Each structure stands twice: as structure tokens, then as C-alpha cells.
């Protein structure tokens, strides 16, 4: 059977033309800097996706219908945008490169259902773009350097999208999709808000210019409610961050280090919760993190 890479990525040319806070960032734990993106401004840093097969896989994964509203981040020269406006009722494209943003409508023959906005998706106010209470989906070839903060913002802020189909560095995608035994802070943060699934892996030859790393397309189905019921999300992620604060250490010691308490205190907490303190943070499920958070909160209240 063909591998995911073989099924998803073959072509080098696009058919539209020639190949051309309490937890300060759970999302930043696996990020790496991506090479530059734009021929106009290298500092903006994303390579142009030119592989028609990958572009079609992104669109298919978004499951677009004519009633859909789509937010595209980093449309670049519009090869994905062209496909989106053909299938969705409305497309809002946020582009940080002023020249590319200005050129995009004419490049696509001014489709009536396209709105191009010049801005930074890490900070732009989303509500006026998509509407306070209107559902929307996200499709994006994200620049590596900005992928984590953009995804974090979309999953944490209101209004949240129904789903995201995003291109990220393969290592980041792997972390988002991880199972207990290979979890990270990014895994917990992503899966707390969404159900991730792999669309496909993407080799460097699918971009112009090719990056030095492999990429993955990941679909995130946003949960109507977070995976774990917690009273305070900030405090929950503070506990999670504490658990991952000392890599390769046992859970009892890493939580002790991250929370600033004696190992005996943490050991007693984990024993009361019937969790083995010799386990490592990467082996825990989201439900187990919720159990530790609630147990820790009860101890704090009891000591007050």
C-alpha cells in the first residue's frame, strides 16, 4: 500500500499556472522558525504551495458547501484561494504582505464572494471579519514561525471556527496528533480544544521555493466544549505546564518542580488520585490531567 506521502504529494506544478497567558505558550513548545515566504518581503516567511494535489486535498478536507464562510490565512498568490471561492459562499483572506494583498483580487478576476484583508492573523480582530455569531471554517498554508500563535488564537478566541485545515511543519503536526506516550504541551493544548486528524504529509518539492523541512496538513475539528471540564482554563494549563517542566523526569518530580512544592506533597496528591507518580507527563491522557488539576485545586482550597 502506498504511504501517506506517496498518496498525497507527487506533482511539482499547480494547474493554475507555472510553479512559481498563565501558561505562556503551550503552543510555542514545539515551534521552529520557518524559512521566508514571500518574494516581495522575505521577512514574512512562508513558501508558496504549488502542488495541485495537495491544494485539492486541503479543499476536500474542509468539506466546503456553497453556504460556507471560509477564513483563509496567508493566501499568497491565490492558488488555494481560487479553489475556495469556487466552492464556498464567502471567503475572507487575511494577507500580511501588503503587495500580495493588493494584487490578489485582480489575480483572481475579482470574484464577488472574496474579501481580502491586509493584516496579521496573530493580532487582527476576527469578529468583524467573520461575524460575531456566524459559523466559519479555516483553510491555511501557515508560515511556520506564526503557526502556533495563529492556531492558538483561533482555538481560544471567540468566535471559534467549526474546523481548521492547516499546513504546519511536520514535527508540529505530529505533536498535535500525538497519543498518550508521546504527548507534549502542544498535544494537550490542541486536543483540549479540538479533535485533530492527519490529512497528508507534504514534501519540500511541493513548494516554491522548497523549504528545508517536511510539512503536514492537519484537520482540527473544534469541540463544542473542551475535552476536559475545568473551572479555570488558565489554572489547568498551569498544572499541565508544571508537569512538562522537567523533561524525562517522573511525574512526581516534574510537578514538584513546576508547582514549586515538595515532592512528598505531589506524591500524596497522586496517590490519592490513584496515579503512579513514576509515570512521565507524556503518558497522561487529557482526563488524567483534568483529574490532577481538580485534585490540586482542592488541596489549594483546603490549605487556604
Write up this protein.
It contains twelve helices and nine strands. It is α/β, with parallel strands linked by helices and 304 residues long. It folds into two domains: 219 residues, Rossmann fold; 71 residues, rRNA adenine dimethylase, C-terminal domain (Helicase, Ruva Protein, domain 3). Strands 4-3-2-5-6-9-7 form a seven-stranded mixed beta sheet, sandwiched between helices. Strand 2, helix 3 and strand 3 form a beta-alpha-beta unit. The N terminus is likely disordered.
What's the topology here?
Layout: H1 4-8, E1 48-49, H2 52-62, E2 69-73, H3 79-87, E3 90-95, H4 98-107, E4 114-118, H5 127-130, E5 137-141, H6 144-156, E6 163-169, H7 170-176, H8 185-193, E7 194-202, E8 207-208, E9 215-222, H9 233-243, H10 251-259, H11 263-272, H12 286-303
Parallel strand pairs: 2-3, 2-5, 3-4, 5-6
Antiparallel strand pairs: 1-8, 6-9, 7-9
Helix pairs in contact: 2-3, 9-10, 9-12, 10-11
List key phrases describing it.
Rossmann fold, 12 helices, 304 residues, 2 domains, seven-stranded mixed β-sheet, alpha/beta, Helicase, Ruva Protein, domain 3, disordered N terminus
SS summary, helix count = 12
Give the CATH class of the largest domain.
Answer: Alpha Beta
Mean of residue pLDDT values: 87
Uncertain runs: 1-7, 9-24, 29-44
Number of strands: 9
Short summary of the structure?
The protein is an alpha/beta fold. It has helices spanning 4-8, 52-62, 79-87, 98-107, 127-130, 144-156, 170-176, 185-193, 233-243, 251-259, 263-272, 286-303, and strands at residues 48-49, 69-73, 90-95, 114-118, 137-141, 163-169, 194-202, 207-208, 215-222. The chain has 12 helices and 9 strands.
